[in-house]
Amino acid sequence: MGINFREIFSAFIVMFAVIDILGSVPIIVGMKENNKKFSPFNASWIALVIMVAFLFLGQALLGLFGVDISSFAVAGGLVLLVLAVEMIFGIQIFKDDGPSQSATIVPIVFPLIAGAASFTTILSLRAEYEVINIIIALFLNILIVYFVLSNIDYISQKIGKSGIYVMRKFFGIILMAIAVKLIVSNLHSLIS
């Protein structure tokens, strides 16, 4: 019971892989090129609050709407799949009809940082680890998210345009694989 560094480390690694903020660099750079503004601090703390709230209220909230975690994961997987298709094929599917030029909430906070994969993972971790250890792991991940978002120009400058292009395609395929895995594994449990 209480703080366990093994649990914190394990939860941190899992969440780091799922959030995959480095994989989101090409998406964020693309948004900046389209004059979409965002606040690294706001994006980070809003994502942390959403994920911690989901840690406590997630299953009850889904139950309130009569949605099970598998249905939620399939829906989130479809959103990730569309993002992956945009990245790989260089097309725009999501209509850019937001009320402002801000990209802080959509798509940076949701679905890039706090998306269906993160929510599903949080509920899975909750079944295995102490809540305090999951919260610490989430906080450490958000520090990395804040660092990457704050230094996005520097990171993209070091990687270069061709590096970003390659990363965008590569992480698009990774994102597509995660989306397909989310859809297939959860669709299987829905059907059976």
Structural class computed from helices and strand pairing: mainly alpha
Averaged pLDDT: 86
Q: Tell me about the biggest sheet?
A: none
End-to-end distance? 35 Å
Q: How many structural domains can be distinguished in the coordinates?
A: 1
What is the percentage of strand-forming residues? under 5%
Number of strands: 0
Counted by DSSP, the helix tally is 8
Shape: globular
Secondary structure: helix percent: over 70%
Gyration radius, in Å = 17 Å
Listing every helix as H and every strand as E from the N terminus to the C terminus, the arrangement reads: HHHHHHHH
Low-pLDDT stretches: none
Please provide a brief summary of the model.
80% of the residues lie in helices and 0% in strands. It is mainly α and 192 residues long.
Walkthrough of the structure:
The chain contains eight helices and no strands. By secondary structure, it is mostly helical. The protein has one domain (5-18, 26-185). The radius of gyration is 17 Å and the shape is globular. It starts with a helix and ends with a helix.
